[in-house]
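Sequence in, structure out. Go.
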Amino acid sequence: VGTWMEVVLNEGRHRQVRKITAAAGHRTIRLCRVAIGKLELDLNLKPGDWNYINKEDVLEESRATDEFRFD
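Output:
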């Protein structure tokens, strides 16, 4: 039996979520990223499925974070 936790970070650092859960007395077994900024994962997608994202949303988000790189 495990415990599900939701952690929201403005900026994640090296192993930060694992350190937070360990401080709360829980070992992290699995991490699921569900959003990067305003871009949210469709939680109804099945493994292997995908959907389109709006290029303007990606470009807007890339200006706000270093998560995306277009070379």
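Check: The beta strands are 35-36, 39-40. The radius of gyration is 15 Å.
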